[in-house]
């Protein structure tokens, strides 16, 4: 069972073991993190199967850009047209969660074998959200449970390839959860009013988090409220960066709101130590973190600038590299100060996140004339008791909290069976590796 982490911010350095699946000859990070850096999400089970089927094919493709030891990540549901032009077989889509798919790769590459994708069904749970890194389930009106993707055990007649994929995907997604757990445990000790509150990060089934709401209409429709949102998220990033962590997935979907309509930064499944690679591929869409090959404070500021553009203009910006230079869209927010902040962040001209916070705070002071009152959170011990009661109820009724959760010992056995390093995909150091 996970224990409370005693991570020192100064100790957070890139985990060298995570380089096992890097495309070494091109110098790019592993493809899973590359896809996550684009902020691509899936929202239904059909997308899950499509993504896994595609990745099964990509594992065997011979082209240089695809010569990666891929893990499943389910991030293809919102691929833009440039991706589909580069990978034309993405247009083929399975119809049901249990089907087996045969996809053909274009001439010059190997033919994919069949690969069945099956998620583990769960009893009597309300799904609040589905993303690349897992599911979010309802616990109570104040609590949610975030889990990694849990795959059903292959059938007794499964091929060795299916067994290998199950092991590979399970280990990868478990490590996503371990990394996010590490970040949230650090933030439990160093909280921030505009970063999601973790209630219990020590349970094997996942992370119990405070429940928030989506973007309120009054915030979206009022520029003064939007400016306060930008300032609050920039301030949250400033705190995160002081701990040596890059969020690496700043998007509208990852900003929630408390009962006072104050912005809360959430979803740390893509978070990385500062200095990790930020893969940028020629002729493919620019990552949400910008064109720099290394993740830094500027990466999150670049993404925040895109978020600001999105909310001010009503659509996401179209950014690209032309002859090695960043091509920017026309800025028409109606406020020259906002346009200046967006452009400065896009061009990487802020030396520190605190400079962007200062710039936003100046505009906020001019447009907002009300005092901020932070939400009074429920008693923390009461929330933990609610978690315990909910877990006990599910154990009594179903025999377990979630079906298909593997213990650390089972994960080690699974990795050893297929000669895999169970810690290879970790981005953060951990007190207890699976040795």
UniProtKB/TrEMBL annotation:
<dbReference type="InterPro" id="IPR050339">
    <property type="entry name" value="CC_SR_Kinase"/>
</dbReference>
<dbReference type="InterPro" id="IPR011009">
    <property type="entry name" value="Kinase-like_dom_sf"/>
</dbReference>
<keyword id="KW-0547">Nucleotide-binding</keyword>
<protein>
    <recommendedName>
        <fullName>EKC/KEOPS complex subunit BUD32</fullName>
        <ecNumber>2.7.11.1</ecNumber>
    </recommendedName>
</protein>
<dbReference type="GO" id="GO:0005524">
    <property type="term" value="F:ATP binding"/>
</dbReference>
<comment type="subunit">
    <text>Component of the EKC/KEOPS complex composed of at least BUD32, CGI121, GON7, KAE1 and PCC1; the whole complex dimerizes.</text>
</comment>
<dbReference type="InterPro" id="IPR000719">
    <property type="entry name" value="Prot_kinase_dom"/>
</dbReference>
<dbReference type="GO" id="GO:0005634">
    <property type="term" value="C:nucleus"/>
</dbReference>
<dbReference type="GO" id="GO:0005737">
    <property type="term" value="C:cytoplasm"/>
</dbReference>
<keyword id="KW-0158">Chromosome</keyword>
<keyword id="KW-0808">Transferase</keyword>
<dbReference type="Pfam" id="PF00069">
    <property type="entry name" value="Pkinase"/>
</dbReference>
<dbReference type="GO" id="GO:0004674">
    <property type="term" value="F:protein serine/threonine kinase activity"/>
</dbReference>
<dbReference type="GO" id="GO:0000781">
    <property type="term" value="C:chromosome, telomeric region"/>
</dbReference>
<dbReference type="InterPro" id="IPR008266">
    <property type="entry name" value="Tyr_kinase_AS"/>
</dbReference>
<keyword id="KW-0418">Kinase</keyword>
<keyword id="KW-0779">Telomere</keyword>
<comment type="function">
    <text>Component of the EKC/KEOPS complex that is required for the formation of a threonylcarbamoyl group on adenosine at position 37 (t(6)A37) in tRNAs that read codons beginning with adenine. The complex is probably involved in the transfer of the threonylcarbamoyl moiety of threonylcarbamoyl-AMP (TC-AMP) to the N6 group of A37. BUD32 has ATPase activity in the context of the EKC/KEOPS complex and likely plays a supporting role to the catalytic subunit KAE1. The EKC/KEOPS complex also promotes both telomere uncapping and telomere elongation.</text>
</comment>
<feature type="domain" description="Protein kinase">
    <location>
        <begin position="122"/>
        <end position="380"/>
    </location>
</feature>
<keyword id="KW-0067">ATP-binding</keyword>
């Amino acid at each position: 069972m996970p224990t409370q982490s005693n991570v020192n911010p100064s100790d957070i350095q890139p985990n060298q073991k995570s380089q096992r699946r890097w495309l070494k000859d091109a110098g790019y990070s592993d493809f899973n993190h590359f896809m996550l850096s684009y902020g691509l999400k899936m929202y239904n089970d059909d997308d899950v199967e499509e993504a896994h089927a595609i990745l099964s094919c990509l594992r065997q493709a011979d082209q240089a850009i695809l010569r990666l030891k891929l893990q499943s990540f389910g991030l293809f549901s919102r691929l833009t047209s440039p991706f589909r032009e580069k990978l034309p077989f993405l247009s083929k889509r399975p119809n049901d969660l249990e089907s087996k798919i045969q996809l053909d790769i274009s001439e010059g590459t190997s033919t994919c074998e069949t690969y069945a994708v099956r998620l583990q069904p769960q009893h009597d749970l309300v799904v609040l959200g589905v993303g690349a890194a897992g599911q979010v389930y309802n616990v109570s009106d104040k609590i949610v449970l975030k889990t990694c993707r849990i795959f059903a055990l292959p059938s007794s007649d499964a091929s060795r390839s299916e067994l290998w994929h199950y092991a590979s995907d399970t280990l990868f997604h478990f490590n996503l959860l371990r990394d996010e757990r590490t970040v949230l445990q650090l933030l439990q000790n160093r909280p921030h009013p505009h970063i999601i509150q973790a209630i219990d990060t020590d349970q094997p089934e996942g992370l119990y988090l405070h429940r928030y709401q989506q973007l309120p209409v009054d915030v979206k429709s009022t520029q003064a409220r939007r400016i306060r949102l930008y300032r609050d998220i920039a301030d949250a990033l400033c705190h995160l960066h002081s701990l040596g962590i890059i969020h690496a997935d700043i998007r509208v979907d990852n900003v929630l709101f408390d009962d006072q309509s104050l912005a809360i930064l959430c979803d740390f499944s893509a978070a990385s130590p500062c200095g990790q690679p930020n893969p940028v591929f020629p002729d493919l869409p620019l990552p949400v973190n910008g064109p720099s090959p290394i993740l830094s404070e500027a990466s999150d500021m670049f993404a925040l600038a895109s978020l600001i553009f999105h909310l001010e203009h009503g659509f996401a910006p179209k950014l690209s590299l032309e002859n090695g230079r960043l091509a920017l869209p026309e800025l028409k927010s109606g406020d020259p100060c906002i346009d200046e902040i967006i452009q400065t962040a896009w061009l990487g001209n802020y030396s520190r996140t605190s400079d962007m916070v200062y710039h936003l705070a100046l505009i906020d002071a001019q447009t907002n004339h009300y005092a901020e009152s932070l939400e009074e959170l429920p008693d923390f011990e009461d929330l933990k008791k609610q978690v315990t009661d909910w877990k006990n109820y599910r154990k009594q009724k179903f025999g377990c909290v979630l079906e298909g959760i593997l213990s650390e010992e089972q994960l080690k056995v699974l990795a050893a069976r297929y000669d895999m390093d169970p810690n290879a995909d970790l981005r953060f150091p951990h007190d207890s590796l699976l040795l």
